[in-house]
Design a protein that fits this description.
Structural class: alpha/beta
CATH architecture of the largest domain: 3-Layer(aba) Sandwich
Helix content: 25-40%
CATH superfamily of the largest domain: Glycogen Phosphorylase B
Number of helices: 13
Number of strands: 13
Order of helices and strands: EHEEHEHEEHEEHEHEHEHEHEHHHH
CATH class of the largest domain: Alpha Beta
Shape: elongated
Distance between the termini: 20 Å
């Protein structure tokens, strides 16, 4: 099967990671063409045909849309797969000008209010049930993001570089931006005997550090900045905490479960479908989040037993093989149907 994958942005984040890993894994068994910004070229396997096209400009730019259509025509794919809102919008605009044999798929990576473009595709993949909830297109499926992650042994000395010794460590990873609501997490641990390890950087860093100082938590809340060994630090933590106001799919949650680290989270994405009942709290609910973290510490053995099904769910659904398999099942279904 010849597949054309389209990425319209030029940023860095979970979307770009998903796109790169899906294409590289899929290229092991199928002919994959990538249309994306030149900056991403070196991230793809040698057997992927890369077509450099800057789609980061206005999605209504007629010249850019013409170049996109011409590039797709030259490739002659069976499937055109657009990732996220902008690529979906641009592909939808030129869809009626593509050859009738071309089938179209789009992936919805986060909750969006405007979903008109996604209604025009032969099939839509969502990274969670929640992001697909309001989409009117009946041809939709959930395929969770998959990640490649090896085993990590617990090595307590790994955390000693941050002055952590004999502490119950709660690890939080992500961009220090308002949507991740790290302030909520910081406030939730102020009366708990735990150490909070925050891994990441972003525009909220100064504000968050000021909050830590105001709460006199400097010795129990540690900012590491960006860390290439974040996975190793997570594996040596006792608990992972997610305090986001909004998430499509949480890579941090997936990594934690694959590393067999339990997760306490706000009610975002598909957390209630994946985590044990009782360890998902309402968005912005500081008191409930504090209570769940405290409970996790005092009943840790019971916690690990409760998370057995979640760990197994992750092993089944959050791997690269599972992601590609689910995506290919969608492609096969679309190829069997007539174009809508």
């Amino acid at each position: 099967m010849k597949v054309c994958q389209i990425l319209a942005g030029d940023e860095e984040g979970g979307l770009e990671k998903h796109f790169e890993e899906l294409c590289n894994k899929m290229a092991q068994t199928h002919e994959v063409h990538v249309i994306a910004h030149e900056k991403y070229r070196e991230r793809f396997a040698e057997n992927i045909v890369f077509h450099a096209l800057d789609l980061s400009k206005g999605r209504r730019n007629l010249l850019v849309l013409y170049r996109l259509k011409r590039t797709i025509d030259a490739i002659g794919p069976d499937i055109v797969h657009a990732h996220a809102n902008k690529a979906a919008d641009m592909t939808a605009r030129i869809r009626k000008f593509l050859k009738p044999s071309v089938r179209t798929v789009a992936t919805l990576h986060s909750k969006k209010r405007r979903l008109k473009a996604f209604e025009m595709f032969d099939h839509v993949i969502g990274v969670s049930h929640e992001v697909l909830r309001t989409l009117k297109n009946p041809r939709k499926s959930v395929v969770y993001n998959g990640i490649g992650i090896g085993k990590e042994e617990r090595e307590p000395q790994v955390l000693s570089k941050f002055g952590i010794k004999d502490a119950f460590v709660v690890c939080a990873i992500g961009r220090l931006e308002a949507v991740k609501n790290f302030a909520l997490l910081i406030r939730s641990v102020r009366n708990l005997d735990v150490t909070l390890l925050i891994i990441g950087e972003g525009s909220e860093e100064k504000k968050l550090k000021t909050l830590v100082k105001e709460l006199c938590l400097e010795e129990r809340v540690i900012f590491t900045g960006f860390r290439k060994d974040a996975k190793r630090l997570l594996a040596n933590s006792d608990l992972c905490a997610i305090s986001s106001d909004r998430e499509g799919f949480s890579y941090v949650m997936a990594e934690a479960l694959l590393l067999r680290v339990p997760v306490v989270s706000t009610d975002v994405g598909d957390m209630r479908r994946i985590l044990p009942a009782g360890y998902v709290v309402g968005v912005k609910d500081e008191e409930a989040l504090a209570e769940k973290i405290a409970r996790a510490k005092t009943h840790y053995d019971d916690l690990m037993k409760a998370y057995g099904p979640s760990f197994r769910f992750a092993e089944e659904h959050f791997t690269l093989d599972a992601m590609v398999r689910g995506t290919m099942e969608v492609y096969d279904e679309v190829m069997r149907e007539k174009r809508v």
